[in-house]
Structure formats: C-alpha cells, structure tokens
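Lab notebook page, bench 4
Experiment: in silico fold of construct C2
Operator: M.H.
Input chain length: 392 residues
Purpose: comparison with the prior construct
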Amino acid sequence: MGARSEPFAPRGMPRLRLVGQRAGASGQRGADWLEFGAMASTLTTTSARRLQAARARRLDWTRLSDQELLQLRICDLRLDLRRSPLQRYVRRLYSELDGRGIRFRPHVWLSEEWFSPDGVPGIAVPFYLAHPRLMRLERKMTREVEGSNVNWLMRILRHEAGHAIDSAYRLRRRAHWRALFGPASEPYRSGYRARPASRHHVQHLGDWYAQSHPTEDFAETFAVWLAPRSGWQRRYASWPALRKLRFVQQVAGEFGAHRPPVRCRDRIEPLDLNQRTLAQHYRSKLARARTRRGMLADRLLQRVFTSEPGARGLTAATLLRSNKPQLLASLIRASGVDRYAAYQVLRTTIDRAERLQLFVRGSQRASLRATRCMLARLVRLYMRSQGLRLRA
C-alpha cells in the first residue's frame, strides 16, 4: 500500500496514531531526538544480561526499559497476531466482507509496516500494534502510532483489503478499471499533487490519499464502499467519484461468491525472519521520515505564534489540540467546506506547529481568535490550489 495517512474522523483511537494521536509537544523534543542514538547504544552490563535473558523468555521483554528494548531483534519479540488484540479486528474485517457477499478472506501477518504486496492477496500489519508496550515505544520514537484507535485501524484494514481484492481477482486488468482509475502500471512516486477541491476521488484516509496513485484510488474507493453505514450513495450522489463506487459494487457482485484466481498465501517480510534490532528499525524509519504536507501553513503560523517559549511555555500544538472540536466546528461554519477538508487543514496546522516548535504568544483567547482567522484563510488557499505537494 502505502496508506500511511491518518483518517479524518475524530479519534479516540489512536491512530492508531495519530492525531489525537501524537504525544504532546514540548521544547525538549529536539533534544529528545538527539538523544536517541545514545539511548539505543548505551547499555550497562546489568542491562545486557537482562536483554540476553529476555531473548530466552519470550514476552519478558515487556519489562525492559526503552533503551534495553531497542537492542532486541525484531524476530526475538516472538509476536503472534492470532494471540494479539489485532485478531479481533481481522475477524471484524472478514465479517464486513461477508456482509457484502465477498467470499475471499485476505490472509494477514505481522511485518514492519502496513502494506499489501502486488500479486499477493494479503495484508501486512505493523508489529507494534500487536502489543501495548510496543505501541508506547512507537509513540515515543515517532510521535504517532498509525492505526492506534479502532476507527483508524478499521479504515486502514479496509484500504489494504481493497489492494488484496485487486490482486486476488486481477481487477486492474479490466478495461473498465483502467478507464475509471487509470493505469496500475503508473510509477509510484515519493510525492504527489493533490487537488483538495476535486470530486473525482473519494475522501477516506488523510491527505487526499486517493489522488496519489490509481491503485490507491481503487483501494480508497473499495474501503468507502465496504464500510458499514458509510452512506456513500448519499454522500457522493453528485460527485464523479460515484461512478467508481458503483463499479466496485458491480464487480463485487460478480466475483464475490467465487474463489479468486490468485490464492497465494505468502508472507512478505515476516517478523520471524527479521534479524534487525528495534534500534535499527527506528533509525531507518526516522531517516525516511519527511513531512507529508506542504509548507503553506508555516508562514501563517509564524505570524500567530512565536518560537520563544515565554513564561508559561504553552506550545501552539497543545493549544490547538485542546481546542480542536471548537476550531473544527468554527472552520466549517466560516468556510463552508466539508468536514474532511476542514479536518485535513486543522491536522496539518497542528503538525506544522509541532514540527516548528512554536509557542503561544500573549493570551490563549487572543491566540485562538487569531488562529480562527488563520485557518479560514488557509482553507481558502487549500481549496483554490490546483496541486498541493504531498508525500506518498
């Protein structure tokens, strides 16, 4: 896949990360990141002994400190998806497929990240979702946990199921599929241009992800169609994207009761063969990390907030998060945009405020008043944009 973006619906989930999701911002964040190398490499003799003992005692690693846990190899975690909280949601996905008349059940396994390999009708789920201890480490290391709440988790599972269904039934080979979504052979790029005002794509995962690639467009459309009580007929009634949803409904009726021609059960990059340590995993993950969104918000944010901590040291991200429901409602009323677009703008604003390490200037009331004006202006700029640069 590539579905890394969070959903737009408010979460109580974690995001699986995300936003509601992120750990609180602080002026110490930069220092925290710099300390990672030292944290991952400085173990006392006692810690080393505990680490060796943990490798022989399965889940005893749950009691290790972060520094000790980072030295553990991923294969030594000995995680089992069937015995994890994830299994409940895999069964829920299967129930939703059954409810839509689809017989096929994509196999699911644990790996380093979310993906569904081309040609393999299955779903890889990130290992950290299999245990609360690993989710805490993920949040500390990356500031988010993708798929941490139920709503977010099911959104991503439905999206990945769309990729698996596409592979299982070779749907992309159909002329009608290519006419609606585009050629699946189109190269994947590190970034894409999204048009926030476009109605040719459904809105499901964040960052207008359906616009990133034809196969992602199909997976997002499938996920919207599959979700119980999504009301897609009503919501997309006047959108060109409705043709894509009707196509999914049509082909699901055709293949649903039949065994798929592709029934490969391979597990790509499984945990039990992964010799990397968690420290190596996070070094690689952090090295790849780049902002997903454009920098449109930066200049406006820096006019409202300051880089100086001030007396109270209240961060802009903390202020925005704690007032998110009110800001979201105000933005929708003031701008007239749909909830998805408003949420993307607010989420981007919080993310950029956190990355820029901005602080509240003056009173909270004055800052919130200026923030409402800034958000209204930002959403206008977004909706007029013919090509927001986003990371795939």
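Observations: The radius of gyration is 22 Å. Residues 139 and 158 are 23 Å apart (CA to CA).
Next step: discuss at group meeting.
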